[in-house]
Amino acid sequence: MNVLVINCGSSSLKYQLIDLETEKNLVAGNISRIGMEGTEHAHEAAGAKKKEPAKAADHLEAVGLVLKEVIEDEGVPIRKVSELGAVAHRVGHGGEKYHGPVIIDDEVKTEIKRLIPLMPLHHPAMLAGIEACQKALPEVPHVAVFDTAFHGTIPEEAAVYGLPYELYKKGIRKFGFHGNSHEYVAAKAAEFLETPLHRLNIITCHLGNGCSVCAIERGRSIDTSMGFGPLPGLIMGTRVGDLDPGVIRYLMDSEGLTIAQVDDILNKKSGLLGLSGKSPDMREVLDAAEAGDARALLAIKVFCYRVKFYIGAYTAAMGGADAIVFTGGIGQNSRG
Ligand code: ADP
After folding, report:
1. Engineered SS bond to 274: which of 20, 229, 270, 293, CB 3.0-4.6 Å?
2. Residue-averaged pLDDT of the chain
3. In the chain, beta strands by DSSP E
4. What distance in Å separates the CA atoms of residue 213 and residue 186, rounded to the nearest whole number?
């Protein structure tokens, strides 16, 4: 069976067409900088790699590019839609309802929509991806795979906030994200180390536009840097990461900002973008720092310090670490 895997990030769409019998990737690609200047489409099929400028003003247009490559173009691996067994969509938050993959129906979409306030940057993009794919491929089953599911093993002492207990009972707790990524790279690291996963303590650092660190003790997530939503923890492209909650009240009082304006700052104007004043994109921040921009250099230092901080915390939480794994666009590509 062939499965098309779709992963819509806030500004990117990654995809792979996988033959489940042979576990071969038939097509893989990444459309980056969606809705920005300089959208790029990198893809690989039958061993041939290409990277070209593309036009994708939004995720709907990006899905159009993917389907053209996977189904419509001459010489593509799939000639008929019936050869596609399923489309698997990465979804950010499964809330308390979903602890594993589910077929996407109206109820699932309603739940994903309901959780938008918890994932304001991701769920709209993910929903747009789901809806565009369902429209283009109505006869194929679409499956949601949730980022929160892997963190279901985080023990209470790490998941509970120091808030009144009733709020925990109402579902205000750490959920954690990037679970599929953390789970996958930990398994790959174990393979690489030729040691069973259940004998290893691993710290995984997913550093993309969104960033999180995970402590994986003997194959189970025991803590992670994101929380109830994807805002806390590391410095990200535009998100603030850890912050004293007192700053929110202070900004509202001293700057006369509404809660929506503060929320906009924390989600969309902070992180690498806010600190550097240049870009949320690490490559551009690195270029600016290299050219001598002091704010860009500060943004990189803050970013790296926070990663180091969490690695130290999780080494202590697990009583040591056998491996530290880096993934995501920054983790995979930047040696800085
Ligand atoms: P998303 O979270 O949207 O899926 P990615 O995992 O693709 O994003 O990561 C995007 C980030 O990776 C951007 O900040 C980008 O600048 C960074 N990145 C990509 N390539 C490099 C590189 N060679 N060096 C440093 N950063 C890189």
Report:
1. 270
2. 93
3. 2-8, 13-19, 24-32, 40-45, 48-53, 84-91, 102-103, 142-146, 201-207, 211-217, 220-224, 323-327
4. 12
Q: Is the pLDDT of residue 299 over 90?
A: yes
* Average pLDDT rounded to a whole number, residues 52-68: 89
Inter-helix orientation angle 123-136/106-114, to 10°: 160
Closest approach atom of ligand 1 to CA 9: 3
Compute the CA torsion angle 258, 259, 262, 263 (nearest 10 deg): -140
Most ligand 1 atoms within 8 A of CB, residue of 181, 334, 335 to mutate: 334
Phi-psi domain of 142 (left: phi exceeds 0; alpha: psi -120 through 50; beta: other): beta
**Which structure tokens are listed for 110?**
């309603």
What residues are labeled active site?
147
What pLDDT shows up at residue 121? 77
- Report the distance separating Cα 230 and Cα 79, nearest Å: 39
Residue 66: pLDDT over 80? yes
Query: Can you give the pLDDT at residue 45?
Result: 80
Cα 307 to ligand 1 centre (Å): 16
Pocket of ligand 1 (CB under 6 A): 9-12, 208-210, 237, 281-283, 286, 328-330, 333-334
**What pTM does this model have?**
0.83
CB 229 within 8 A of CB 116: no
Please tell me the distance from the alpha carbon of residue 259 to that of residue 239, in angstroms, as a whole number.
16
Q: Is 26 helix (H, G, I), strand (E, B) or coil?
A: strand
Residue whose CB lies within 8 A of the most ligand 1 atoms, among 122, 184, 333, for a mutation test: 333
- Is 82's pLDDT higher than 80? no
| Percent of the chain residues topping a pLDDT of 90 | 74
Measured in angstroms, how far is the CA atom of residue 94 from the centroid of ligand 1? 25
CB 288 within 8 A of CB 278: yes
Q: Which two tokens stand for residue 273?
A: 């973008």
Q: How far is the CA of 302 from the centre of ligand 1 (A)?
A: 17
